[in-house]
Every structure is written in structure tokens, then in C-alpha cells.
Structure prediction request, 87 residues.
Amino acid sequence: MKLLNIGYGNLIAADRLLAAVSPESAPIKRIVQDSREIGMLIDATYGRKTKSVLIMDTGHTILSALTPDALGLRAETENESGGTSFD
Prediction:
């Protein structure tokens, strides 16, 4: 299993990630609110501004303080270097 660092020591299973998107649009804000209401929201921002919303294949929505671009670069870097793996 490859893990992706989403900031502040938080890791997610990279193969479960469907999308990393900006939180600015109304549909994404609606997804965040709906996830909060049904208890499927994970806030990994540590009180900082949300810069990306991660949508997982499990139905969970995760808030991160890193931008989607930064997360994409981390994912590419970890893939090239072998990444953090727990097999």
C-alpha cells in the first residue's frame, strides 16, 4: 500500500484517492457540507485554511491545508522514488 503525505504528518492510502480539488467552487462546498452532515468528513488541516479537498473511493472527504498542486507533486515524487510503502 502506497501512502501519500497530505501535510502535518497525515498520510492517506494513495490508491484510494479519486480526486484532489480546490475547495472554492459551490459543488465542492456542497460535497464538504454533505460529508460533514453524514459523518464522513475528515479535517486534516490542524486549524489552517483548507486549500484542497480529497475525495476518496470509500466515500470519505478529507480536508488538507496543502494545495492540489503540492499534493500532485508529492504523489509524483513518491512514485518515482518508490514512495512510502507498507506491503
Q: What stands out?
A: Residues 68-81 form the longest helix (14 residues). The first strand starts at residue 2 and ends at 7. Residues 20 and 72 are 8 Å apart (CA to CA).
